[in-house]
Amino acid sequence: IIMTEPGDQKTIAEAKLLAREYAKHNSDDQGNLYAKIWEVPEFREAFDYNMGYEKKNMLKYRAEAVFRHTRLSKQLFQKVYYNPNLLLDDEANMRKHYVTESGSHDLRSTFINWLVVGTYFPALYAASTRFRGWGCFFAVTAGWYFLYTQGHQLNNNILQKNLNSFASPLVEKYGIIDHHDN
After folding, report:
1. pTM of the model
2. What is the number of other CB atoms lying within 10 angstroms of the CB of residue 25?
3. How far does CA 18 lie from the centroid of its chain?
4. Cα 163 → chain centroid
5. Which superkingdom does the taxonomy of this entry point to (predicted)?
6. Nearest-CA neighbor of 97 among 167, 29, 18?
7. How far apart are CA 12 and CA 9, in angstroms?
8. Beta-carbon count within 10 A of 120 CB
9. First-residue to last-residue Cα distance in the chain
């Protein structure tokens, strides 16, 4: 048993009150903790690289601005991830899914790079047997650059589609609306 002074009881009561206020701002009604995405180092690196918002204690407002300006129809995953009411468990699941999808995206990107580079010279040779001059070189190069950009655009669309399909059940859970749709 710890003996306390009469002044200590007041300090203990103040500490309990402070703990209740802290819990009220950092958890929902069921006691689940909020994610506080603005405290993540990656968020600071991406959206506050010169530390201007951090110095002004405005990182939370920056995260809310990103949430408001993201379109639900195009970037559903990002809209859910930057939701100020996102719970810590959901954020961890979303981050885990993003890491998995990012690895698949990188693998597809490497495959596209090797495919384009590996087929460029055979295509250039095949075209040079029929056509002569620099026009042939520039035409094949432009065509292969077009294929390269389209392949990577398709890869990015696949990544976004997979992320959006994972986050779609969370839109209803959090009641997220698009601020841009009329």
Report:
1. 0.77
2. 7
3. 33
4. 9
5. Eukaryota
6. 167
7. 5
8. 17
9. 64
pLDDT digits (tens, 9 = 90+) for 92-106: 999 999 999 999 999
> Amino acid identity, residue 162?
N
Is residue 163 within 8 Å of 98, Cβ to Cβ?
Answer: yes
Q: Among residues 91, 150, 76, which one has the least CA distance to residue 115?
A: 150
Nearest to 152 by CA among 114, 108, 101: 108
Q: Determine contact, residues 35/86, Cβ cutoff 8 Å.
A: yes
Amino acid identity, residue 102? Answer: S
Q: Where along the chain do its domains lie?
A: 6-174
121, 132, 148, 163 from 81: Cα distances, Å: 43, 54, 30, 11
Contacts of 6 (CB under 8 A, 6+ apart): none
Beta carbons within 10 angstroms of residue 82's beta carbon: 23
Q: What is the pLDDT of residues 46-102, one digit of tens each?
A: 888 888 888 888 888 888 888 999 999 899 999 999 998 999 999 999 999 999 999
Q: In the structure encoding, which two tokens stand for residue 69, read together? A: 């300006």
User: Using the 8-state DSSP alphabet, how is residue 31 labeled?
Assistant: S
Confidence category of residue 16, pLDDT binned at 50, 70, 90: confident
CA angle (24 as vertex; 19, 27 as ends), nearest 5: 110
With tokens 């995953």, the residue in question is 77
